[in-house]
Amino acid sequence: MLLDAYPYLIFDGEAQEAFDFYAEVLNAENLGLTKFKDMPAVPDSQPLSDEAQNLVMNATLQLPNGSYLMFSDTFPVMPYSKGNNVSITLVYDTLEETKATFDKLAEGGEIQMELQETFWSPLYGNLTDKFWVEWQLSTEEEETPSIDIQE
């Protein structure tokens, strides 16, 4: 079952400033902010520059009506262009539903990150669909049963 959907605003080094601005303007509650330096080390990857380490990896505001806005700076090695700075995030409660939706959205589109386990989700991936809408799909699940994501 789809648990939640929310806009994800992506910036080119300005996520912290935008986060603070929208928190004040929208009277929103800061639910947390993580910088790239806070993520676990990835084996065989290049270390991030000092500047990149201080960029926002993920931040969440809760609006007074209970809705959420998510924020991030573009991952340091990914290209950024104005116009691709909003994606829609879908959070499911099962791996199977995450995979099924991801596969359907990927038809005719372009996958940026294959579905995989991350430190924040047992199954996460992102893509641009055939209409050039960017999507992030994630699973929020207490137990992680085995699923073959390579089908």
From TrEMBL:
SUPFAM superfamilies: Glyoxalase/Bleomycin resistance protein/Dihydroxybiphenyl dioxygenase (SSF54593). Pfam families: 3-dmu-9_3-mt. Residues 7-137 form the PhnB-like domain. InterPro entries: Glyas_Bleomycin-R_OHBP_Dase (IPR029068), PhnB-like (IPR028973). Coiled coil: none annotated. PANTHER family: PROTEIN YJDN, PROTEIN YJDN-RELATED. This is VOC family protein. The lineage of its organism: Bacteria, Bacillati, Bacillota, Bacilli, Lactobacillales.
